[in-house]
Amino acid sequence: MTERIRPVTDILNDPLRNKGTAFTEDERRKLHLEGLLPSGIDTLDKQIDRVLGHLESKPSDLERYIYLMGLCDRNETLFYATLMSDPARFVPIVYDPTIADACLSYGHLYRRPRGMYLTRHMKGRFRKVLSNWPIKDVRAICVSSGGRILGLGDIGANGAPIPIGKLQLYTACAAVPPDGLLPIHMDIGTSNAALRADALYTGLREEPASSDEIDAVMDEFVAAVQSVFPGCCIHFEDWKGDDAIRLLARYQDKALCFNDDIQGTASVALAGLITALQIVGSTLGEQRILFAGAGSAAIGIADLLVETMVQEGLSRQAARERIALFDINGLVEKRRRDLNPSQARYAHDGAPTRELADAVRQTKPSILIGVSTVHGLFTEQVVKTMAKMHERPIIFPLSNPTDKAECTPQQAYAWTQGKALVACGVQFPDVEVDGKTFHPGQANNFYIFPAVALAIYATRPKRIDDTAFIAAARGTADQVSAADRDKGMLYPQQKNILATEITTATRVAEYIFDQGQATVERPEDIRAWIEAMTYKPVYAGA
Ligand code: NAI
Predict the structure, then answer these.
(1) Do 89 and 68 contact (CB within 8 A), yes or no?
(2) Is the distance from the beta carbon of residue 292 to the nearest atom of ligand 1 less than 6 Å?
(3) I need a labelling partner for 196 at 20 to 30 A (CA). Which of 133, 289, 429, 524 fits?
(4) Is residue 368 within 8 Å of 386, Cβ to Cβ?
(5) Could you tell me where in the chain the CATH 1.20.1370.30 domains are found?
(6) pLDDT attached to residue 6
(7) Topology of 8-57+67-76 in CATH?
(8) Distance in Å, CA 191 to ligand 1 centroid
(9) Does pLDDT of 274 surpass 60?
């Protein structure tokens, strides 16, 4: 066997220290890299240009995703410098929607591990297994079972890219330092028989664990995280609906944790509503809100709206009375016998109806939120009925992807002569109505969870509660300029995302300090303090 004289290439194979062609002459001499790299020396900017050229030549976003993940494995600084040069352009490539394709073929695309892969069978040993992670100061873990990924349902171990992508967005959008972030796939089995039969599937070929087993596994996992990585925040992502709700309720008061699908989603919807109400010049407590859909998204948003109205001074009961639900079986009213407890809280007196337009006439909503997954549910009649009752109806067809949206922004603006205030679950193109250009908002969770993560990173709180997500929503909404609001924009511009997230993080950090939850001393200037600890994608000296 050939004996290696010196592990000269170690630094070139270490994504955290590798600079590729940007190693200076001095560094090359000092690190014994002379002759191991092309002689031309590049700046980071030039390297980014080369990366952009490579991306340009790729035939699809999935190929761009694969290329960027390879880059992250080779040179993390260059990877983040590229992403942070234009997050709005790269988020759809490293995350939604492209990541859905990456997940579908994960076992086939697999090249090398990233983060950790735990299974239910490691119960009893989680502490020991977590100790295998080489970095000790882990500040945030994103953990997914792959039980309900985007619109793909249960894809088990093929969901592994999700926590990876979510944490990459912490850094790309809010400059959370990447070295303390740990993505974990928790394999609890999958109900997806086709995947279990796929020869290249990388996970357990087992039916999913029962709720009791999941709870037992996660009890030990959460305790192990607290012991191996003290102060680490656990972000639950893309667990099956009831697992997600149950796990958040189980640990919210016992560990530093949050669930983006529940709390981040509700917060971003609230942010859009706050902006819309700033335009209308009214408060949430003065509105009537109708949800089309009474599933997990509707309940999550409704519950956060109630907390917000309670903050405004309404009683919890009065706040709930301002919210009505309409689902596949019609208006949620007191006589319905098919409601679960979280839906029953929003059941009021009312005449049974299966017609949404009828429900609109009955409940007279000023805000209509679509989380039904039913394309076309917001008909011309529904929207016009609202517009007859309210000068500026607020209409959020949030179902996604695009072919599930309850109506298009074009329709909502056209049916209301441009009066509607609209936000959608996906980014629709600008719309022109009567010579005026409207820019429909996108209720994208990326406005919220990276900022919350940055605030948690800075303040190291003991716990994070739902109200922190109200602070994040208010912080986001307050950054939409008057000129942008005039164009119908309900969210801040995506091109300034880093500055936006730092401002939102500052608001969340203020809240955490005010609540006495921080474990670090409150600085004089919270924003400057947070900004100073953000990650800068530049090469360190040799
Ligand atoms: P879910 O499956 O839990 O709930 C769907 C609900 O729609 C159920 O209550 C069902 O009864 C109702 N429904 C079905 N057909 C209906 C009909 N014809 N009329 C009225 N209601 C009907 O789904 P989940 O998780 O609540 O998500 C719903 C949608 O919201 C998805 O498309 C999701 O992508 C979207 N969403 C968007 C978010 C965003 O924009 N940030 C965040 C979260 C969800």
Answers:
(1) no
(2) yes
(3) 133
(4) yes
(5) 8-57+67-76
(6) 56
(7) Hemocyanin, N-terminal domain (1.20.1370)
(8) 21
(9) yes
